[in-house]
Amino acid sequence: MIKVQHIEMLLAIDRAGSIRAASKLLGKTQPAVTKALRQAESELGVAIFKRAASGVVLTEEGKVVLRRARVIQSELRKLQEDVDQRRGLATGRLNVTVSPLAASRIVGGTIKRFKRKFPGVHVQISSGHEPMAFGPVREGQVDLVIGPEPHESDSAGLSVHFLVETSIVVITGSTSKWKNATSLADVLEGDWLMIGTRARLPFLQQRFFGLGLTPPEPMITSDSIISVLSMVQDSDLLCTFPEMLLDEAETKWRIRALDLREPLQSARVAITMSSERPPTPAVQYFCDCALQVSKNEFG
Q1: Name one GO molecular function term (predicted).
Q2: Average of pLDDT values for 129-152?
């Protein structure tokens, strides 16, 4: 059976790109790392790495092994953090992925509450969107996501805590040729952009299919809401947008929401965590803080 010390070695080789560089990273001799790699491969019965011009690269089987190794490493780290935090040591790391709505209305207050109890825990906040954000949660690389909740078909292995529901509007530039449009059918031929990556396209399409309309094909996608707003203002571009952020956006950007007859499907914002791994005290408290801030903010 593969040993725990092999996990660190495999991850170091993958990160460094060669056995020689990994040995320096680990503070071990190259022959020792090579021997440990051969032991791991022998135990698993597969080649994990293969030679390449620049060093070594993962085999197809190796990709599976490394994905599991990252989960194991993450769980070992969480085990130590869990024990330390229960002993009263407010240390550790927390990785959180947030949507634009969460970043604007929930995260700030949550961090303030959280840091009063866990001042020594490092919190990494990253932006992200469904469905791509949920894979790292399942793999243990992200502790929780605050954003649109997963669809039922994508909820396996996840625990979901509802926060708030927001209507979705369509925005365009304040002087756009579409500014007086009153029906989605009138703007389907316009140029659309989408918040997130193309992996979110099915969620955009679903909103139009639900109204019996052929969905537009966004020509631009962006993870940055600031980039989206800067592109939409003073343009004819169209984009779906959370209504809860509209007032703030309209005061800073030259945009406007279309007064459409057809309501778009709303978005349910939630905290999404792994249902298969127990949260550390810090993760659980961060979740509790976000729930309380959301209750105070939205009622």
Answers
A1: DNA binding
A2: 89
